């Protein structure tokens, strides 16, 4: 099944740019989702940073972005290099199985034997050389027929991430650090997370999946045959004049399901999954506490300030301020505070309450105030 | 010296509408000082409420307002009844001795034997019938030649107010509850304040002074002869075509000094001061903690919301929100918080830090950001 070129030459990156990032409201919105924001102060949006991180692995012509129609212009503005054949637009969100599966099906149809790797558009990664080394190992494991993932060595008992329980080393050609996968586990409670970190055989699930496109689709077809049939129908019509008609007929009917459930968990149970430990800095920047942590380097006393023209006057305060309004923001004696100041909505909370922001967004939806969502 | 009419018939109210209220920034501004805001949720500005409280005492034609030129239009908008002869405009702020002294000098010149009472434009008073009863006693004491003040029976060991130490009862005709005054004391520390409240012979200094205009000016002339000479010069020219020229020549040279120092303290030392205890609700609404307290009725768990079109979504939060921007304000898990949201400036602090707001304003002045002051 292996082609003649080196596995990395057959590698194609896929960036599913979906999800609003509700826990980052009112910064993240339906029309300005998390991946379009610069949350690190690098001057680049997260999706741009993701793109630049993948270019050394697959080259700029082999990175496909799957996104909602509404975000095409914004994404192309920050990634002008993005070629038309690498743009996949969703007419409505259908979760990660459909998004990544469609990319895999299109690429497999164009280029049989292609190896695809999917990487979230809105994560933050440091020490990119280590990231690339881990992905290269994962690509080698994919070439050997496995579905590979990169799991992050945990640095603390985080309760906001899912974990991967690892089993025995299973060194492969080009992937010497590959481990077997026992199971994918959901976000744990603190006690369980502490046990995981102490035990040393759990990694954070960073949602990176690398495998041959055909292997991925075959695995998905075992649990979701109708979904994969739909994806293959879309892929066959994709580069033809029939694309629009088939999308209209098929896409709305596709099942919404996360790829963790349709592929990763069943593959782990069948022993088809391998994990490459990644010892690089990684964060899914899931909430404002995470942003505060990213910027403070763990120092509780610091105040992180995000926003191009932020005007902040702080006295004896710590936490994070996100300024999008240009207004003067004055903080006096507030600790671990989260202030997000946008032109039409203001959020004031604390790091400890950062996970509850999603509940507010839900309440706003229910009360019909979607003008600010 | 006493006229033939009842003392209250010779009574004239004076409202010195000065002071920005820096501790209420960014709500209070140079162009929108505290007295122009509705801080109680009554639907009326503080200066309007002050006016309405005085009408039953002196009638609408006998209330003089001393204010900065810049605020005339705003004051007249909320007090359309204000007659031209009751408007005294300051070309620049000169503190309370000049403001109240000029009103007294003008009124004494127009109407010898007049009794004047000065009442801050930006205080909150409840139980107005008790207020009026106390002022009526003070007017009777003034008629007897005293400088009278109304001191508020303290309800807690406040450290944000000055205190009046009382001596023996000195019942006067029409003022049966009058007490002698030992001294005026500055804002105390908590321990001292607790001792004052326990002891029962200290009242809060609410800055109300009631006396015959001539008595007030004579007392002021003892410590500040040049100031009073200037005020008399202004008063003589006030109702003549020379007013403008004399104001230009005299007003800029007047000394800036609080009436507490030029009149109250020396008069107390000379035994010329009497105090009428007032057992009505009173607050100078000096900071946001005071606003929060006013609105919560002392319940720590409450969230007070001020602002005509406030849109606030609060979860497990308490304190005070002042909304002037029309934006949606969302609070999650913040206690005793103070959020003041205005179109160009945002303040986030806590009740415990409310007194420190002035320091921020000072910092803004120093750093040249007076656009938001």
From TrEMBL, chains A, B:
What molecular functions are annotated in GO for this chain? nucleotidyltransferase activity
Superkingdom to which the source organism belongs = Bacteria
Secretion signal span: none
Q: Which SUPFAM superfamilies match?
A: Guanosine diphospho-D-mannose pyrophosphorylase/mannose-6-phosphate isomerase linker domain, Nucleotide-diphospho-sugar transferases
Span of domain MannoseP isomerase/GMP-like beta-helix: 317-364
Checking Pfam families in the record gives: ManC_GMP_beta-helix, NTP_transferase
InterPro entries assigned:
GMPP_N, ManC/GMP-like_b-helix, Mannose-6P_isomerase_type2, NTP_transferase_dom, Nucleotide-diphossugar_trans
Q: Which UniProt keywords apply?
A: Nucleotidyltransferase, Transferase
The Nucleotidyl transferase domain extends over 14-295
**Listed name of the protein:** Mannose-1-phosphate guanylyltransferase
Phylogenetic placement of the source organism: Bacteria, Pseudomonadati, Pseudomonadota, Gammaproteobacteria, Lysobacterales
């Amino acid at each position: 099944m292996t082609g003649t070129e080196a596995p990395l030459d057959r590698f194609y990156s896929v960036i599913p740019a979906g999800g609003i990032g509700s826990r980052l409201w009112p910064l993240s919105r339906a029309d300005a989702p998390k991946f379009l924001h610069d949350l690190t102060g690098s001057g680049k949006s997260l999706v741009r940073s993701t793109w630049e991180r993948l270019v050394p692995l697959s080259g700029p012509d082999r990175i496909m972005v799957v996104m909602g129609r509404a975000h095409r212009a914004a994404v192309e503005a920050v990634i002008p290099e993005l070629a038309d054949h690498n743009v996949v637009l969703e007419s409505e969100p259908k979760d990660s199985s459909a998004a990544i599966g469609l990319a895999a099906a299109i690429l497999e149809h164009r280029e049989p034997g292609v190896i695809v790797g999917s990487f979230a558009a809105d994560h933050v990664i440091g020490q990119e050389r280590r990231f690339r080394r881990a992905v290269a190992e994962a690509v080698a494991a994919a070439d050997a027929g496995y579905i590979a993932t990169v799991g992050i060595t945990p640095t603390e008992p985080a309760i906001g991430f899912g974990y991967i329980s690892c089993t025995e080393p299973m060194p492969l050609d080009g992937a010497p650090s590959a481990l077997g996968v026992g199971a994918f586990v959901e976000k744990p409670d603190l006690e369980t997370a502490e046990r995981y970190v102490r035990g040393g055989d759990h990694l954070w699930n960073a949602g990176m999946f690398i495998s041959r496109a055909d292997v991925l689709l075959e695995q998905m077809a075992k649990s979701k045959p109708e979904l994969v049939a739909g994806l293959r129908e879309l892929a066959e019509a994709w580069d033809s004049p029939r694309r629009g008609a088939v999308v209209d007929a098929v896409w709305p009917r596709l099942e919404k399901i996360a790829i963790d459930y349709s592929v990763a968990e069943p593959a782990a149970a069948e022993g088809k999954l391998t994990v490459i430990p990644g010892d690089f800095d990684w964060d899914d920047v899931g909430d404002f506490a995470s942003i505060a942590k990213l910027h403070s380097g763990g120092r509780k006393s610091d105040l992180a300030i995000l926003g191009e023209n932020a005007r902040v006057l702080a006295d004896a305060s710590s936490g994070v301020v996100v300024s999008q309004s240009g207004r003067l923001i004055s903080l006096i004696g507030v600790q671990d505070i989260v202030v997000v100041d946008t032109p039409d909505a203001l959020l004031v909370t604390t790091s400890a309450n950062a996970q509850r922001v999603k509940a507010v967004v839900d309440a706003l939806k229910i009360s019909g105030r979607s003008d600010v969502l």
